[in-house]
Amino acid sequence: MNFTPSTSRTSETLYLSAPAVVELVRRQGLRACLQGIADNIQADFLRWADFDKTARVASHSRQGVIELMPIADEVTYSFKYVNGHPGNTRLGLSTVMAFGVLADVTTGMPLLLSELTLTTALRTAAMSAVAARALARPGSRSMALIGNGAQSEFQALAFHHLLGITELRLFDTDGEATRKLLANLSDLPVTVRVCTSVAEAVRGADIVTTVTADKAKATIITPNMVEPGMHINAVGGDCPGKTELHPDVLRGAAVFVEYAPQTRVEGDIQQMPSDFAVTEVWEVLSQRQAGRASATQVTVFDSVGFALEDFSALRYMRDTALALGMGERMALIPALDDPKDLFSLLRQPTLASRVQHLPEMAEA
User: Fold this and answer.
1) Which Pfam families match (predicted)?
2) Catalytic residue of the set 172, 206, 238, 302
């Protein structure tokens, strides 16, 4: 469904704070939110040609990266501000923090300002599920989850609710992260096995999801771990100098990406030649290209996160907030009686000055 903003003249922007989004997800239900965002992603990827697309704009430092992710169709513009700082947990901060905007293309008016930290986790997991539905073997029931940090619960829940995964095989070098994940999934009706190595976790798995956070050229999955028919959902390699897969894993698989110009710089395929063959997921979803060729073929979704997914998630959050009567109306943009007279804002008396001129009234 194409998002249609209000055509009424207004200078108010809907604001969804972090607490408001938490309450929205609780009221709507986590499963419904994952399904709704996945449905939006599927619908928007099928409109691929309608969007003005660009790779994200990134500012890198030794500590991490700060990025802007813009995209627009003829009706709606959106962007996300997001960081990636693996060392933030030592400071009591999230590794990923984000907010985003939806705006009316016709006027440029911001329609929504929303948190996107929690929402990014939801949309990343939803995107993983959308890709896996198209690429994994039908009837996949077992998933290895390598990296048990902040994204892991959302991946587990999305694959359980949207693909029917019933067995999770967990591994993380940080035992506390795994214990945290176990506690958070205690009510999920799945079989959970804690493993002592990556190799043990991936052995016999239908799907392997990697969500590691270290900003390093790592080789979490090596060729000897890969079994015929596996689908590898590589999520953690998402910026220059950060990988999770050995190059030979990529050479031996059919590789799928969100937006090739961005993934060649940021994804696991940054290790490969510039002409290394990949297929964009929208082509599979629209049936322009084949996905899995056989039950024994190995498929890789080299996921880095693309602005269209945030566009889809922001649409879902705004539509759901309006349906539930949630969010605040804020004056992010000044309201002017004469749009050509911006300076008039400074001539208007402030509340303090009006109060100073009322002593006679107070005495009376």
Assistant:
1) OCD_Mu_crystall
2) 238
